[in-house]
Amino acid sequence: MGEEIRYKQVILSNYAKTSVKESDLSLRTSKIHLKIPCGCDGAVLVKNLYLSIDPFILALMKNQELDLPSFTLDSKLCMPGMTAYVGFFKFCSPKKGETVYVSAASGAVGQLVGQFAKIAGCYVVGSAGNKEKSAFALMKVDLLKNKFRFDEAFNYKEEQDYNAALKRYFPDGIDIYFDNVGGKMLEAVLNSMRLNGRVALCGMISQYNSLEQPEGVHNLINALVKRVRMEGFFTSDHYHLYPKFLEIVVPLIKEEKITYVEDIAEGIESAPGALFGLYSGRNVGKLLVVVARE
């Protein structure tokens, strides 16, 4: 029969209609026999040590059909690193001295985009946020400037006027926007883009949660008049670039020119709260749940 063990599962209790709630998920304890069925030569039993908490999970909870990328448990050498590399270098084509804005800059991808931009010789501003003016929100901004070496950073939740905020940090306009949030911030950025600017559409987290009708962008004429190139991408379409990515990033890691932060929650019981926190800005860096330490 094999050894019988008890294990825990996080189960989707209800499809999310608008915003995700912790009550949409429940914890269940079940039993399983640790035995590989006969005839399965070469098969192995796998033990999960970590869960990756990612924004696109909400689409699955809403029963939406998406062509989602595959991914591996990550760090700066896996999914977030590749996403930052492909989005910034392939789709933004940075030049030394250009101005770069990164939204959700304290997240898994944004923190690396900012560091890549600094290494490329760009002027970089990042935004991060928390719903309240708190020490946590200040910590995010401080992290961007002092650990990830962004030139400037701000808490977008404190800004009443995104256009005014961007004008303050980019008086001469934005050359490159790495978009992780979409919505009203994308609209404001299009007002500040410079001629021949580039926008990499990496994520739309402001549109994933709490909105029955996604917000539209009402000023796309700016993209036309300013000859702005906007393009969305999935990292899984560009895995052929992985050797080049390693060639560039591994030396940077060894030379300690880039750093990385992970936000780790302990125990599978914490998974629902971690997912909820992702959409409310409670995480800093790549969000993981530790299922087992060994």
UniProtKB/TrEMBL annotation:
Provenance organism: Salvia splendens
Alcohol dehydrogenase-like C-terminal domain boundaries: 108-248
InterPro entries xrefs: ADH-like_C, GroES-like_sf, MDR_fam, NAD(P)-bd_dom_sf
Keyword Cell division: no
Pfam families referenced in this protein's UniProt entry, alphabetically: ADH_zinc_N (PF00107)
Transmembrane segments: none
Sorted UniProt keywords: Oxidoreductase
A molecular function (GO) term: 2-alkenal reductase [NAD(P)H] activity
Full protein name: Alcohol dehydrogenase-like C-terminal domain-containing protein
Top-level taxon of origin: Eukaryota
